[in-house]
Write a structure and sequence with these properties.
Elements: E1 5-14, E2 17-25, E3 47-55, H1 70-73, E4 79-87, E5 98-101, E6 105-111, E7 120-123, H2 141-148
Parallel strand pairs: 3-7
Antiparallel strand pairs: 1-2, 3-4, 5-6, 6-7
């Protein structure tokens, strides 16, 4: 990261495998108008498959009114799980460790990758309206905060 901008000079696609060749200009540090690529080594000996979990809002309304039917407001799909590939050094971290995945956000290790158990990380929401989360929320966090002072 932040080596400089790279120009792709060759691309070879073989099924789901994509190989790119590029030249890096270490002096070009203007990253604003460039596409971002995150990559890991394709060697399974140095990577690990992990499970990422995100929890959405349990209630799909910023303020529950007295006459609301709470059962209709409950978000029944508030938990989303998906797999990702990460650097193998995650195997050495302890439960409770907080880490940041670039361009994703902060996560906390919930389960270690032991025998018959996948390393699991839970997303830590930061309250931003445009979070890096994959979950689209019915409640806008910024609007919820504005409404608190208006009562």
């Amino acid at each position: 990261m932040k080596w400089g901008n790279a120009t792709v000079t060759k691309k070879v696609v073989d099924g789901s495998n994509i190989q790119l060749w590029a030249t890096v200009d270490e002096n070009d540090k203007d990253f604003k108008k460039t596409k971002k690529v995150t990559w890991l080594c394709a060697d399974p000996a140095v990577t690990v498959e992990i499970k990422l979990i995100e929890f959405g809002h349990l209630i799909d309304k910023a303020k529950v009114e007295e006459d609301d039917d709470v059962e209709k407001l409950v978000n029944k799909n508030s938990k989303i799980e998906y797999s990702a590939i990460a650097e193998g050094c995650l195997r050495n971290l302890q439960k409770g460790t907080i880490l940041q995945f670039e361009r994703r956000g902060f996560y906390i290790i919930d389960k270690l990758g032991l025998v018959n158990q996948q390393l699991t990380c839970n997303f830590i929401p930061d309250g931003k309206a445009k979070a890096m989360s994959t979950i689209t929320h019915a409640i806008d966090a910024a609007e919820t905060q504005k409404g608190k002072g208006a009562d």
